[in-house]
Structure formats: C-alpha cells, structure tokens
Amino acid sequence: MSRAQIILKASGVGKQVTTGTTELTILSGVSFEVGAGESVAIVGVSGSGKSTLLGLLAGLDTPSAGSVRIDGHDLTTLDEDGRAALRGRMVGFVFQSFQLLPAMTALENVMLPLELAGAPEASAPARAMLGRVGLADRLHHYPKQLSGGEQQRVAIARAFVTRPKLLLADEPTGNLDAATGLQVIELLFELNRESGTTLLLVTHDEAITARCDRVLRLAAGRLEGAAS
Amino acid sequence: MSLLREIRLAWRLLARDARAGEITLIATAIVVAVAAVTTVGFFTDRVQRVLELEANRLLGADLVISDSRAIDPELKREAARRGLAAAEVIRFPSMVVLRERTVLADVRVVSPGYPLRGELRIADRLFAPDRLAEAIPKPGTVWVDERLHTSLDLAAEDRIGVGASRLAVGAVITHEPGVELGFLSGAPRVILNAEDLAATRLVQPGSRVRYRLLLAGESASVDAYRAWARERLAPGTRIEGVRDARPEVRSALERAEKYLNLAALSSVFLAAVAIALSARRYLQRHLDGCALMRCLGASQALIVRLHVAHFTLLGAAAASAGIAIGALTQAVLVAWLGRVVAVTLPAASVLPAVHGAAVGWLLLLGFALPPLVSLARVPTLRVLRRELGAPQGDAIIAYGLGAVVIAALILWRAQELRLGLTVLGWFVAAMVGACALTWALLRAVGTLKSRGVSWRFGVANLRRRALGTILQVVALALGIMALLTLTLVRADLLRTWHESLPRDAPNRFIINIQPDQVTAIGRFFAERGMAPPGLFPMVRGRLVRIGERPVAADDYAEERARRLVTREFNLSWAARPQADNRVVAGRWWDDAAGGADQFSVERGLAEALGISLGDALTFDIAGTPVTATVTSLRTVDWDSFNVNFFVLAPPGLLEVYPAQYVTSFHLAGGRVEVLNALVKAFPNIVLIDVAQVLSHVQRMMDQAARAVQFVFLFTLAAGLVVLYAAVASTQDERLYQATILRTLGASRPQIRRAHLAEFGLTGAAAGFVAAAGASGLAYFIAHRFLHLTYTPDPAVWLIGVAGGALGVTAAGYLGTRRVLEVAPLKVLRALG
Q1: Are B194 and B109 a contacting pair, CB within 8 Å?
Q2: CA-closest candidate to residue B107, choices B183, B182, B201
Q3: Residue B14 phi/psi, 5° resolution?
C-alpha cells in the first residue's frame, strides 16, 4: 500500500481522563492505517474504548498521546476550527442516534452540510441523494414523522452528500431492528462502493463486520494482535 | 462563505426554527417587550403632553412672551406662520371710578381668543354660580373680579369709569388662568375688550404697561417657536412656559413623569427576564444542532456569525411586530382614556417607536445573544456523548453582559441618575437576596420530613437543579417584585395625593397684609369662629452673589435657573421649620447657637442655582446688601398649598427691612360672606382663590394615576410571559424525567403532584423574596424621591407569597400538562 493511498493513520493514540484523583486510561498505544476505499470495522465489548477512539479519529476530541492523520493532515497540529474545516471537507458521519435536527425536514437536514460548506447549490444534490437512499417521497417530512430506518437513511444521505473521502459510523444499526439494520447496512456499503469512500465503523453488529475488508478488535483500550 | 450567503443561511435556519416553533417563545418575549415599551412610550409621551397641556391651562397658554414695550410684530408673524394660536393681553394699573369711589385696579385688555388654555369663568352676580366664559367681554362692557365688585359696591346697572370711557359691568370674574401665586401681582382686576382700549386713552407714551403675547399649539411647534424666539428676544423681553412658572405644578408634573418612567422600567426589566429565560431554553434545545454543525465542519466563528445574523433578523421582525402592536394598543388605550376623562390626547411622536426598537435590540443583545454565542463552544464530542453541555462559565459571562445592558437601560429610562441608581441597586440587592434566600429555602425544605413520594420528588427536583432553581426564583421574584412595587407605589401615590390635598387644604391666599394689620387679621378670623391662620413675614430681595461670585442669568444654561435669578425672591424668617419642610442637609438653627447670619434654602432651588451648604448668599434688599451663610437645605412639600419660601433666615436678620405678610387658609364652601367682609375690612389686601388651581392639580394627578394603571396592565402581561418562559425553560427536562418515572411505574397523579409541589414552592419563594424587595423599594422611592409618606402594607407579603405560589402553580400546571400526555416510548425514542 503506497503512502498516498493511506486515508487514515493512527499512531500510538492514547487517551487518559482524570476522575477525581484517579487517572483512567481509556485508550493506549493504538496504531493502525486505513487505505483509500477500504472498509474497516472496530469491534469490542462495551467500555473497550471504541467510541472514544472514533471521537479521536474524527478530531472531535484530542488524544493524550500519539497522533491521528487524515489524508496526511495531522489532526493534533490543528486547532478546533482547523479540525472542523478538515471534517467539513473530508469526513462524513453516521451516528447511532441519527443526530438529525428535529426542526428541519429531511431535505433540509441533508442540505445542511452543503450549506455550511458554502455550496452554491444545496437543494439539488440533497434531493438526488435522498432519492438515492429511497426517500424521494419523504423530502419534506420532519424526523419525528419518519421511522427509525428512514431517519438513518436520511443521516446516510447527509453523510454522503458532500462526497467525503472518509466516512465514520458509530453503531449505525444500534437503534434499529435487525431487518431494518440489514437494509441500512446494505445501503451504506452500496454508497461506499459507488463513491469510493473509505469506511470506518464502530459496531457490535456481526452482519457489518462480516462485510468489512478488515476488523480491528479493541479490548481494554488496546488493539488486539497489535504490537505493543 | 460570503456574508450574503451566511445571511441567507441564517435566514433559512431562522425560518426553519420559526416553522418548527423553536423560536416562538423567544420571539413572543421580544414582541411583548417591544410592544410593552412602545405602548408605554407612546402612551406616556402622549399623557405627558396632556399633562403639560393641563398645566398650561394654568398659565393660560403654552408659551407667554411679555415685554414692557409693544410686542415685536415679527414675533407675532412668525407665530402665525407656524400655525400657533395667539392672543394678546395688555396690562396696566389704573384707577377705576364709580361715583365718588376710586380703586386702583389691574386692568387687562384682551383680544379675542383669550385665554388660549384653561378656563376663564364668570358669574352674572357676585358669588353667584359661575360658568365658562365663551368669549371675551363685548365692546363697551368690562368684567370685574370679586374684589373690585366689593370695593366699589357695584349695583346691577352701574357703569364704571376706566380712563376716558364709561363701561357697563358684564360679569364677575371667578377664575382666570395666569394668576401668579405667592407674590403681589396686582390689585383688583378688570378685563376689557381690546377694541375699547383706544377710547380709554389710558395707554400713552411712558405709561406703565406690560404687553403679553399668549401662544398655543402643537407642542413640537411651540418648542420650535420657543427655540426660534429665544434667539431674537430683545433685552427685557421674557418668554416662559408653564414649567418655568409654578413650583407646585412643576412638582406634580415631574412626579408624574418619574412614576410613568418607573412603570416603563418594570416592563423593560420583565422583558429582559423573559428573554433570558427563553434564550436559555433555546440554548438547551440547540446544543445538539450546534455540535452537529461543528461536526459537519462549521467553524466556531461561523456559528457565532450565523447566530448573530439569525437573531438580528429575529430582532428586526419581532421589533417591527412589537412596535405595530404597541402603536395599536396605545391607540385603544387612548380611545378608552378619552372616554373617561374627555381629553383629547395629542399625537405621539415617533420617538417611542425608536426607543421601543432600541430596547428590543438591546435586550436581545444583552440577554439572548450571549448565551447563544456560547453555543459555538459546545463540545463537538456531544454528537457521541450527549451528556456534554455548553461550557458553564459562559452563562456567567452572558448574564454579566445582560446585567450591564439592563443597568444601562434602567439608567436611561429612569432619566434621573439617582433614581436609576437606586432602582438598579435594589434590583441587584434583590437578586443577591433572592439567591441567598432561595438557597436557604432549598436547604430548609430538604430537611423537612417526607410527605410522600410526590412531595419528595418535587423537592428533590428543586434541589438537584439548585442553580437553575435559584435562577428561576430570582427571575420570577424580580418580575413579581416589579408588579408589587407598581401596585404598592401606585396605591401609595393615590392615597398620599388625596391625603396631601385634604378637604381642608388652604384654598385662599391673602397677600399684601401690612405689619400693623397682623393682629387685626387674626382677630377677624377668631370672631368668625375660624382658626386664625399663620401669618408669614415676607421681604423681597434679589440674589446678587453666591460666595464671591456675582450672580448673572447668563451663567445658567437651564431656563428655570435663568428666570429665578432675574426675579426677586420672597425671603422670610422663622424660628422653626414648618411641618411640611424637611431639613435634608446641614442643620436647622436652634435658639442658642449659630447667630442670625444664616439661610435655609429649598433644595430644588439650591440645585438649580448651584448653591451648596456653607455658601455665603448676598441678597439686595431695598438697596442694602444682606449676606448670610447657607446652613441648611430643605425640601418643601409644595402640594400642601401652605405658604412656603425658597429662602428662610432665622429671626433677627431681616426684621429691619420693609415686610408684608402673607397667609393661606381654608374657606369652607358657602362662606363667601367672609370674603366680602375681609375685603371690606382690609381693602389693601389681595385675596387669591386657589381652589380652582387645586382642582386642576387634582385632575392632573387623577389622569396620571389612570395612565399608570394602563401601564401596569402591560407590566402584568410581561410578568405572565416571564412566568410562562420560566416554566417552558425546564419543560424538556421535565418531559424526560416524567417519562423515566412513568417507565418506572409512577402514576400520572403522582408526577403531577410532584410538579405542583415544585411549582408551588418555587412560586412561594419567589413571592416571598418579591414582597421583601417590593416593600423596601416602594419605601425607599416613596420617601427619598417622591417625598410621600409610605405606610408598609402587610397584605403585600400575603399577596406576594400566595399569588406567587398560585400563579406559578397554575402556569406550571398548564405548561406541563402536555408532559404527562406524551407516550413514554415516543419520548425515549426521540431522545435516542
């Protein structure tokens, strides 16, 4: 794998938090690389540090040790706004709890990242993307008028509408029943394939891990099988 | 992103928020705030104008230009050009003759239209019921006052000689505006038509004549004319409006203005509270959205800019709506008031609309924007971990800015630094007190024995959200406090007005009493079973020096001060201050110490002329300089209609100068024969009927009271918005809690009782603190600034606590009804 193809690189990432007088290590020495177009699942039991790692990889939080690079940009050298700008350009998100804005319709939710990026035209791509996820007839529905599966499809449309290089997903099927979860996974991987996006997921779902190119197992804040 | 794009995005976000009902509360708060402020502004503006108009009735015009030479025709032409109504009065002393009797009379030659303001009342016979004079005397007739009628012993058909003319007596004057109180303005009065003047041949070169041009019109035109005329007045020409003239009117007017401003202030404050509470709810509801926007790549600066644009647009829309509602409401109020008092209010200026919009923007800037700006600092990680909220420190900074804004607004609206600072000081003290008291209450309630799960849960709710509870109680307490203060001060003001003008308030003044008549006057009253009135010596003197500084009108910018120093003062002496005088600085002379070289000066005069305690004042009394040191400053209750003096000396300083005496007394209705006998017994005295003046002042005060009641209704409405905002600001949290509790098996009545316990306690605590603050504030304002005697009303505590508890419980019940109707599963799913 040539260096140019590496989209995400974690080097010795560690995270410690202080609660009262005790220092708690959540992550320690996590290093891995993800190549362009690859799909990688991070799995582990509850409390193993999966979500913390995802937050660090997305630049939503800063590591106590090590560094994270997205497409060659070292997140630890960027400030909060710099990281936000990088996310806006390169990263898409899908969350377990969908994170749709309740005051906005499905269309408006999908338009939002384009609008924030200052795209001259937000409506047409958003409509197209909603059509692609099968919600062309739900454009003007509010999140509360949509089922869980539909809400997650809106979230997926929102994640892909900016054509990100890297898509991060946090338990994307965690709030869905098995059948709906399966449909959502199907859609996620289809879109991933179509747009050549790199996919990194945190999940418990065996159906997802089975479809990924690679699985990273996290236990007690460390990657299993990784050299320490 | 370009600015235009950002504004468009902000507009879209605003539209989406508006459609989803996310900004209904905050917009309502702003609309009500601006509507309240503009209504109050428009209304007080118009009421103040009507009060001035009323006061002008006492002057007979809005503006009077007087001169010892004929009035410059240019002044008249300009008045006509500006559309002002004008009338002329030529006034001179002259002997009036009937058979062998002659009386020196104060002759007033009037032109049609006189008086322009106020009422000239006449009666057909002496002491007969009077009526409004609809015109001036017909040519060939004169109207005379009661004194002249009595002095000449006029019979029905008599014609009196005025100069070369013999004129029929058409009527007896019972009331004439423009009577100058407190000093001798003249002898018995005669009014004759201007057409008859030439025939009298009384005005000759060198005659002692005073020309007066009376003007009236729209107050803006009058003000503009006054400004124009001041530049052109020749030396010796005077211009005056009502505010320059009468201390008792000035005092009533200024008091009314202060009070209306206070009322406006309470609306402003309530609006601020409502907006702060609404903004807090908005903040809570938008934390997720902002975290997500950060996650999607928005910079902090972009989020700040978006919110600034968002709320600027919201402010513009809400302020416009508020102004429209304000304009409409005041029109309705004016129509209503018009029916009650039969007074046509002059049109309002546009200034209140500008003020309303400015207040709206400032409130938004101070109370809505800062907490929302902290949205930008929400941890982005919140998208993964919902428990992360906005940084706590921000709230303190935000409320700090809000406090600065409200302080500035209060100082602005109070129009008087001292009053503003006092109100501000009390609000701050009340806030600190409310925080401390609520905190103590929370602790105390926590130690109470359990009264069942609902009570315990309700109390736990309050204690768990201690900071939120304290904030809520403080907000509510301040709202209730403003309402209570207004009702308290209002009730006090009304009561004290009526008390300060009791039925037996003096309604007649006697001036020009000679020293050798003092004993005889006392005897005269005693013989008729009336209490002999106190007689006060009066010496006239011109203030020539304050310390080493010669006094000149040009040293003063304020018109009233300029007028005061050009006039002669009435000085008097007394061993003791009168009951309606209060020494507010320095010490009153006592018998033993200090010597006779002292003055006690009325505080308002001292402030106007820049006189301080310890200054040596020099008066020119009949050509002799008299110097003494100011050893005390007094406040004087001018409303008492007792004889009072700006400057007093101890006995021993002024006795050597020529003095006359002055007194006031109450004449019961129907005892007109006393006046008759008095004038006959002491022909030189001048009797002034102030009953008319009194009823005018009372009417003005009643109008002010009515105005305040309207203003109060608005404050009440603003208070209700605060209440609703307070309940709504915790609604999401309540919904979540109720859901969890119901999931765990709690019944709806149990949760409802818990809510009611919580609301009841919150309301009672707020009411208690509010009652304490309101009592204190009312006491302070009444005593220190309005100079009223304030009696604390214990009912305020009961009303505060019970009203607070009931009001908040009722509002809370209505506001949280929905909480118990939503299916728990729906809430849990929505929360994710």
Answers
A1: yes
A2: B201
A3: -65, -45
Distant-in-sequence, close-in-space partners of B49: CB < 8 Å, separation ≥ 6: B219, B345, B346
B chain contacts of residue A54, beta-carbon cutoff 8 Å? 384
Q: Which of A54, A99, A116 sits opposite B288 (nearest CB)?
A: A99
Structure tokens at B716: 């009440």
**C-alpha span between B284 and B770 (Å, rounded):** 28
A83 CA: distance to closest CA in chain B (Å): 8
**Complete DSSP assignment for A41-62:** EEE--TTSSHHHHHHHHTTSS-
Rounded to whole angstroms, the Cα distance separating B346 from B330 reads 12
ipTM of the complex model: 0.83
Q: What tens digit of pLDDT does each residue of B42-75 get?
A: 776 776 666 666 656 666 788 888 887 788 889 9
Amino acid making up residue B773: G
Nearest to A81 among B9, B295, B299 (CB): B299
Distance of CA B708 to the CA centre of its chain: 9
Give CA angle at B607 (B602, B608), nearest 5°: 100
Quote the minimal CA–CA distance from A1 to chain B in Å: 29
Task: Determine the Cα angle at B180 with ends B174 and B185, to 5°.
Answer: 95
pLDDT for the residue numbered A4: 44
Q: What is d(CA B462, CA B184) in angstroms, rounded to the nearest whole number?
A: 70
User: In terms of C-beta density within 10 A (0-12 exposed, 13-18 middle, 19 or more buried), how is residue B50 classed?
Assistant: buried
Q: Looking at residues B73-83, what average pLDDT do you find?
A: 91
Q: How far apart are CA B399 and CA B471, in angstroms?
A: 11
pLDDT digits (tens, 9 = 90+) for B28-39: 778 877 887 787
Model pLDDT for residues B492-546, shown as the tens digit of each residue: 655 665 665 666 777 777 877 888 888 898 899 888 888 878 888 988 888 889 9
Crossing angle for the helix pair B731-743 and B795-816, nearest 10 degrees? 60
Task: Burial-class residue B822 by CB neighbours within 10 Å (0-12, 13-18, 19+).
Answer: middle
Which of B61, B74, B162 lies closest to B116 in space, CA to CA? B61
Distance from C-alpha of B368 to C-alpha of B390, rounded to nearest angstrom:
15
Q: Check whether A211 has a pLDDT greater than 50.
A: yes
- The reply to whether omega before B115 is within 30° of 0 (cis) is yes
Over 80: is that where the pLDDT of B609 sits? yes
Q: What is the pLDDT of residues B373-423, one digit of tens each?
A: 677 777 887 777 766 766 665 566 666 777 788 788 777 766 667 777 877
Query: Count of CB atoms within 10 A of residue B335's CB?
Result: 10
**Is B340's pLDDT higher than 80?**
no
Q: Is A60 on the interface with B (CB under 8 A)?
A: yes
pTM over 0.95: no
Q: Are B487 and B803 in contact (CB under 8 A)?
A: no
Euclidean distance between CA atoms B679 and B670, whole angstroms: 17
pLDDT band at B13 (very low <50, low <70, confident <90, very high): confident
pLDDT (average), residues B565-575: 82
Please tell me if residue B381 touches chain A, with a CB cutoff of 8 Å.
yes
Q: Show residues of chain B in contact with A118, CB under 8 Å.
A: 1-2, 5
Which residues lie below 8 Å from residue B349, measured CB to CB, with a gap of 6+?
Answer: B45, B220
**Does B444 contact A at CB distance below 8 Å?**
no
Of B1, B301, B384, the CB nearest to A54: B384
Q: Strand B581-586 relative to strand B238-240: parallel, antiparallel, unpaired?
A: unpaired
The Cα B122–Cα B130 span in angstroms is 5
* HSE (side-chain half, CA atoms, 13 Å) at A94: 34
Enumerate residues 6+ apart whose C-beta is below 8 A from B192. B107, B108, B109, B110, B137, B141, B142, B143, B162, B167, B200
Please give the Cα distance from A179 to A172 (Å, whole number): 13
